[in-house]
Specification:
Largest sheet: 16 strands, mixed
Radius of gyration: 24 Å
Oligomer: single chain
Length: 627
């Protein structure tokens, strides 16, 4: 009997294609009811909590004010290219002191690419606007450098695999008129980084790409609350590593396609499109994971999604198109799909052939525009004194903050923001941030690098959201711990007690000390986009826990010993429930898990081996029962 027969049972539906690919293996969920469609598409109308349209900030954050410090006018008439590029070119030498550039409201006219510097640090630049309707970076009209045969960007970050922590927030990039070779943003960020609350638009619809991620190596990073208007292609992604996460994306009036993914693994939640052209082209060895797609304005001559690789799609509705999905040359019937998988569903024990579909909640947001409610930690004798000040927002101007001891966070504090500051305890000391109150207001902690001697102790029912941060220490929960949200965060995650957790763009690396990266002991864990590096199990789910993984890339990197390969599984499910969608990136068989999944159910153990994989893309693995 072959390993395939011993270790795997498959739920398959086979459909012969007309041409192109010899056969298609897919699963389409039977839950395509009208009630399901109405419920899911109505949820797309309001993607996330709202924030003030014009954000106010204190003037002592420690960032570069592009008007005050470099003389940019922002009047829509003066060419501000030189002022902005001078700010970008100013040397900075520390990973822990990134360059933060603030663009107060105004229209900043530019005539050339705003190029993150080619010398010195390759990482860590932030463009912060005052709101997408208030801060506009606008390309001059009819520029020769942006002719049709060009591919020149308005904003271009560094590339490579150490382009860490690049952020673009709260602004609009406008490519003007008569610039058919324009690219709105040419973006790379690794491990952590985001484009958030941004509009990219072409005034005349011309332009090559709105958001380009074609250079080496895109991700992992987060694209959230982004609208793209015009261009030949709205979004382009390329390369097999490291994976991108998208949430709340609006595409409109593209000339060729809304989003083209070539060989990358991308996870998308809430994609709206108003286009006559296809919404998605998925080609190469790409794996596209889509939750909630609402596609309007389609042409009856094309399908909304043109797939020539691997795809998982849930709650997709198309209007006007010939169909919602086309696989190679096969037009898949229907304009609505409750759940659709290409190419197959894997399992070890009997299990439903669809994902867990855990409930999804939005990450909390908060921004207080009353600056009298902000407390600068430097104005107080201690961090605890700042926390006790009664202010809603406690901020750490950009810098390094050595501290120690226990710091209690009272219910008056709604947000703690670090602006990419580093906070940590000296050697042989520790600092513990304690959340013990029972406030119904979420607590948001964002914008920090917290060293290995920092612990966040979530010991109350209060909801906690950790965003845009790196936690090198510990995140501890308790029996009383409330909901936890992680967004664009580098941290291991160990749920010692059952907890509800939603993670978006989670990055975990255990290269120097191989160990389990995530343990879920009886909780509900939903992940949209996970990238891991290093040996040690990726996720262990025990004690009746539920884990739903929706992308993206598992990258073991290191060479396994023979003993490790025989015993170490990427995913472990012990009398619990999980559904897994992901891609593998491995340089060789010795630098990969031999066991992808190990499951224990009622005393029986089964394993799913890497040698049984038809490819390194896993559109869906399920391990749970109907209960």
């Amino acid at each position: 009997m072959t390993n395939k027969l011993i270790y795997r049972s498959l739920g398959l539906v086979l459909i012969s294609l007309l041409s192109g690919c010899a056969s298609e293996t897919l699963y389409s969920s039977p839950f395509n009811s009208e009630d399901d469609q109405l419920l899911e598409t109505s949820q797309l109308l309001d993607h996330s909590p709202t924030l003030p349209q014009e954000k106010q900030f204190p003037n002592d954050i420690g960032w570069i004010n592009i008007k005050q410090d470099y003389g940019a006018k922002g009047d829509g008439k003066t060419d501000d290219t030189q002022a902005i590029q001078k700010a970008l070119a100013t040397p900075y030498s520390s990973y822990n002191r990134p360059k933060l550039i603030y663009f107060p409201k105004g229209t900043y006219l530019v005539s050339d690419t705003l190029q993150f510097p080619a010398e010195g640090m390759q990482c860590c630049v932030t463009f912060q606007g005052q709101g997408r309707d208030n801060t506009i970076i606008k390309l001059k009209d009819n520029l020769p450098a942006y002719r049709a045969d060009a591919a020149a960007a308005v904003i271009r970050t560094r590339a490579g695999n150490i382009a860490f922590r690049n952020y673009i927030r709260d602004l609009t990039v406008n490519t003007g008129r008569g610039n058919p070779g324009a690219v709105g943003i040419d973006y790379i960020s690794n491990n952590r980084g985001a484009i958030k609350d941004v509009t990219i638009k072409s005034e005349d619809g011309q332009g090559r790409i709105g958001l380009s991620m074609l250079r080496q190596w895109p991700g992992p990073s987060l694209i959230k609350n982004v609208s793209i208007e015009g261009f030949d292609v709205g979004i382009r992604t390329f390369h097999s590593v490291y994976g991108m996460v998208f949430e709340n994306i609006n595409l409109s009036n593209q000339n060729e396609v809304g989003l083209q993914n070539t060989s990358n693994t991308i996870a998308i939640r809430n994609l709206k499109s108003n286009n006559s052209v296809p919404v998605i082209h998925n080609v190469g060895n790409g794996l596209t994971i889509l939750l909630n797609g609402e596609f309007q304005g389609g042409s009856s001559s094309v399908s909304a999604i043109n797939n020539r690789a691997y795809i998982y799609a849930r709650n997709v509705t198309a209007q006007g198109y010939q169909s919602a999905i086309q696989n190679w040359d096969h037009i898949v019937p229907d304009l609505y799909h409750r759940e659709y998988i290409f190419d197959r569903v894997d399992s070890l024990f009997d299990a439903p052939k669809h994902s867990l579909q855990l409930p999804i909640e939005e990450t909390p947001v908060f921004h207080d525009n009353n600056l009298n409610h902000w407390a600068n930690v430097k104005d107080y004798p201690s961090v605890q004194a700042a926390m006790n000040s009664g202010h809603s927002t406690i901020y750490f101007p950009r810098g390094d903050y050595p501290t120690s001891g226990f710091i209690n966070i009272p219910d008056t504090v709604k947000k703690i923001i670090g602006f990419e500051s580093r906070l940590g305890a000296p050697k042989n000391e520790k600092v513990v941030f304690q959340i013990t109150d029972k406030s119904t207001d979420p607590l948001i902690i964002e914008g920090f690098i917290l060293n290995e001697r920092v612990t966040i102790q979530h010991a109350s029912p209060r909801t906690l959201a950790l965003k845009y941060s790196q936690l090198q220490g510990s995140l501890l929960n308790s029996k009383e711990a409330g909901k936890l949200f992680l967004e664009d965060v580098q941290t291991e995650l160990h749920l010692d007690y059952p907890q509800q957790v939603w993670a978006r763009q989670l990055n975990i690396e255990t290269l120097s000390n191989p160990r389990t990266k995530i343990s879920n002991n009886g909780g509900n864990l939903w992940i949209l986009g996970l990238k891991t590096e290093g040996k040690g199990s990726v996720i262990e789910t025990t004690n009746g826990g539920q884990t739903e993984l929706l992308g993206t890339v598992i990258y073991p990197v290191r060479k396994f010993t023979d003993a490790e390969q025989k015993t170490q599984a990427a995913f472990v499910n012990e009398n619990s429930n999980h559904s897994l969608i992901y891609s593998l990136s491995a340089a060789s068989a010795q630098r990969n898990y031999q066991i992808q999944v190990k499951e224990i159910r009622n005393g029986e153990t089964k394993v799913f081996l890497t040698e049984d994989l038809p490819s390194y893309q896993i559109p869906l693995f399920v391990g749970y029962n109907n209960n």
